[in-house]
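Q: How would the structure tokens look for this protein?
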Amino acid sequence: MEKRLARFTAFFTCAFSLFVCVAVWFLPALEQRIEAFSASIRADQRAREERYALLEKMSGLEIMDYNTQQVQEQAQKAEKAEQEVDKEGGEPKPQEDVIVITHQMQLELPKGADASNVEVVENLISRRIDIQIPGADENYIYDYMVLGESSDMQSLDYSSEGSSGTVALTMDKMVEADYSFDEDYLYLDFLSPRELHDRIVVVDAGHGGGAPGAVSGTYYEKNITLAIVQQVKALFDEENDASIGVYYTRLDDSNPSLSDRVGLANELEADLFLSVHINSLKGNTGVEGVEVMYNELAPDTEFDTQDFAQICLDEEVAALGAKKRRLINGNKIYIIRNSAAPAALVEVGFMNNPNELARLTDPGYQHKAAKGLYHALLKSLARLDQLQKGK
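A: Here is the predicted structure in token form.
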């Protein structure tokens, strides 16, 4: 037992002595490594603080332009280094990862943000595109690469709330965002609707917000028109015909101005402008049926506002089985008078008639109204295509 203990003690003493010798030998190198590591951390911290100090003085667009310039300069240096190596015939030196800008805009994504949870919300009337990024904190715009071409943008603003942030773009003109993802970036290109679609239609749900339109008890015109237009959208979405671009002045309880409503159609160079309303006539509860307004003073062409209005009247009456009333002169109506495209304002029925009101507020009847308008638009577009082919 004593011999075993002596052998163990001798072994432990030798091992400890060896450890001390090795530690003494390597300690200076270890200290140097620790110091180098600490210096690297301090340098990174200083660089980050200097970057913050610089970027905090910039607007969002200036930050994007600055980042883009830095990335482009880095790419140029890397290319120049490769060219020099090729000339000398030597082995290329390892280069830091070079970011390549391949789209009009690209946003570096935080960990966990991807195509499944990043939202791109577009509003053509306000020319605004909101990019909602989960995991983006208040310093996102300073810490991550926001890159792109700012010439088509009026502003870039960033805000954060809770566990997500929003990059808000205001564009110079009405564009759609065509976007894609990889594991590191969201890529965006901004295209005019005419680059994306052969035909363009604008559909307007009358009234909205603080402008309820006609009122009957607890029923508001603005809600009925919105319900019908939302079902028109569902029909176009289901068909998913990329050749037809369908845009809406509102899909919620908002109230765009009259100039914004018709302005959307005009700036998009729409082929057709359809506005959906519900009628009301005081003192006559027996009146019912569909009427359509058009611009009687518009130039007479092969397919004009009156032709479009007549198709809307015919298709809506057929879909609803409603009474067919008439076309009505509508030049006095702002959105009709100022529309460059053939415009039709469809009065689907009369809210002051209790029987018709019951139908107008029924989802099944609203769906029929939407189908009538949907078919009217398709039939009108087909007519335009026939005329174009005949030229």
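The chain has a mean pLDDT of 89.

The chain is about 45% helix and 25% strand.

Upvote if useful.
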